[in-house]
Amino acid sequence: MSMENYEIPRHIAIIMDGNGRWAKKRMMPRTYGHAQGSKTVEKICEDAYRMGIEYLTVYAFSTENWQRPKEEVDTLMNLLRDYMKDCIKTSKKNNMRVRIIGDITKLDTDLQESIKKLEEASANNTGLKFQVALNYGGRDEILRAAKKFAVDYAANLSELDAVREADFENYLDTAGIPSPELLIRTSGEVRLSNYLLWQLAYAEFYFTDVLWPDFDKKELQKAIEYYNKRDRRFGGV
Ligand code: FPP
Hints:
This protein is an alpha/beta fold. It is built from seven helices and six strands. The chain has helices at residues 19-25, 30-51, 70-94, 109-122, 138-153, 165-169, 217-229, and strands spanning 11-15, 55-62, 97-101, 129-136, 182-185, 204-207. The chain has a six-stranded parallel β-sheet, with helices on both faces. α4 links the parallel β3 (97-101) and β4 (129-136). α1 (19-25) packs across α2 (30-51). It is globular and about 60 Å long. The structure holds farnesyl diphosphate. The site of farnesyl diphosphate has 21 residues, from α1, α2, β2 and α3.
């Protein structure tokens, strides 16, 4: 499939769903699906960048995912641990800038340190801007933003009238990052699951039955093809 005549979204957000079912189909533990899913993430980052996508944001762990069995939570955290470490090298090689969104203060301190190291090491890279949502919830993000905002404006209540959406956006974890034009969710589920509630206000939504570990460049191209068939009006006519 040639992408030549397609408009490529600047920013794509992905809900990587279906790892557990992918593993179950193979009589393997759910955690095997997550490991495979993590490999898919790395491939998609490279494909996305080659296709001209500037920003990619993936949902790795939600504020609700702590309710999963401890073994599964531990496996996911260890995968993310490995990822943050390996990615210092990978991001140097492929010029990718990595940023974590979500409340990382609730993560183990060693993981928080790895995250900071990776973010600092990759901060000046000019390739793909890759955001990983970790202990992320859209409502939690907006509430944390509102709290920081309240502190900043407590002494300047007279300025409140002049505050615009763009000013408030600076308090979100995604400050400085343009909103995604396209959301992709794999595995047939059709919900938002508390993902980027503010940022997805005008995004096109693409749902596919493909399970995340099976998602590849061809599937990404299909999503972009779908995006190009949409008539984006932003509330106008
Ligand atoms: C949803 O599938 C997937 C997750 C909750 C975890 C996503 C994490 C990864 C792909 C690995 C680590 C990420 C990075 C950035 C390296 P599910 O387990 O809910 O699938 P199911 O609905 O089939 O059970």
